[in-house]
Design a protein that fits this description.
376 residues; Peptide Methionine Sulfoxide Reductase, Chain A; 20% strand
Length: 376
């Protein structure tokens, strides 16, 4: 279960609105991100808190992306300190997170909203600083007072019935660890095998997949050995039954493949530190070229594999490119999500659009730290 805190004006309506959705486990009305402890409703005009709803949700049934789409459908994100007839800083809009993994999702939702309005978006985007449960008479207020005031349209409370169902699911699998991963070297198109740890990671993921009861209808893999072998171990299927597709291969780094991160020049380190400034050498690929080829495959699969569970075995940078494209990230945020060795990321196709699930499968030994160290 995960939690997000949403401020959208009067919390009576916001709480009732989110209570309708399958996957929302519980909600709580309260006061968030203010300047004093234990605020009371009558004090909000001077405590700096926003009326906020704590939303606990089951990420296997509803995603944060979906929750934020619903959120933006019932607020005016361009209205500062006002929603409906309510005015004051306590009625400001805000998204307050408790998990760093939620940041890319929130950023994508804000960017999407900015394209739909001519005025600036004024929704706060901050880590949760504090949250205080509101007085009991505020909890589930509209359930107990159906005729009570609400700034949200009545039709919005029937939105759950309009939710689209997924038409297919894509599982993005990153290969297991190699010696070059361990040595912190750029692999690119080098055909490097898994090391012993990588083989073990793949077997651990095999057990997780079986425990979850996941069945893959179709399997695609990068042609590189580390991806193919990972795919064999995770699925128990011989590689002769895979579809090998070059579009799943890792980004080409040209003549710097095999180099340690610590030995890269300052310009080459831009690949990690400032992707917008990165310029490939020789036959190396650009981020745009990588994105175009792998998203070409993703879009093709929507037409060729409808209704199926499809596994794609690929590589770290290639998978980051998929996440960045679907979330419409600015290039500076290309690396803002963790993709560990043998991680499986879930991507649904819903009403023709890609939806990245919050749920993912990981093996403990595959986790990697955020950012890159250039120390030897």
């Amino acid at each position: 279960m995960k939690t997000i805190y949403l401020a959208g004006g009067c919390f009576w309506g916001v709480q009732k609105f989110f209570d309708q959705f399958d996957g929302v486990v519980s909600t709580e009305a309260g006061y968030a991100n203010g300047d004093t402890d234990n605020p009371r409703y009558e004090q909000l005009y001077r405590t700096g808190h926003a009326e906020t709803v704590k939303v606990d949700y089951d990420e296997s049934r509803i995603t944060l992306t979906e929750l934020l789409d619903f959120y933006f459908s019932v607020i005016d994100p361009t209205s500062l300190n006002r929603q409906g007839a309510d005015t004051g800083t306590q009625y400001r809009t805000g998204i307050y997170y408790v998990d760093e993994d939620q940041r890319p999702v929130i950023r994508a939702a804000l960017k999407k909203a900015s394209k739909e309005y001519n005025q600036p978006i004024v929704v706060e985007f901050q880590p949760l600083k504090d949250f205080w449960r509101a007085e009991e008479y505020h909890q589930k207020y509209l359930d107990r007072n159906p005729g009570g005031y609400c700034h949200i349209s009545g039709n919005a409370f029937r939105m759950e019935h309009k939710r689209k169902k997924r038409s297919m699911r894509i599982y993005l699998l990153r290969h297991g660890r190699t010696d070059l991963n361990k040595e912190r070297r750029l692999q690119g198109r080098m055909n490097i095998p898994l090391n012993e740890t990588g083989e073990q990671q793949a077997l651990e993921m095999r057990d997780i997949v079986r425990e979850k009861g996941i069945v893959f209808d179709k399997i695609y893999s990068s042609p590189l050995e580390r991806a193919v072998r990972t795919c064999e171990l995770v699925t128990g299927v011989d590689r002769s039954d895979f579809t090998i597709d070059d579009r799943l291969a890792e980004m080409s780094f040209g003549p710097i493949e095999g180099q340690r991160y610590s030995d890269l020049t300052d310009d080459q380190k831009y690949f990690f530190t400032d992707p917008g400034k990165y310029k490939p050498l020789g036959n190396g690929e650009t981020y745009q070229e990588l994105t175009e080829r792998i998203m070409g495959l993703m879009n093709e699969l929507k037409d060729t594999e409808p209704g199926k569970n499809v596994l794609l075995a690929s590589h770290g940078t290639a998978i980051h490119a998929v996440l960045a494209a679907i979330r419409d990230k600015d290039i500076e945020y290309f690396w803002d999500e963790n993709v560990g060795n043998c991680d499986i990321t879930f991507i649904d196709v819903v009403d023709g659009e890609f939806l990245i699930r919050d749920e993912k499968l990981t093996v403990p030994s595959g986790l990697i730290p955020r950012g890159v160290s250039f120390n030897k």
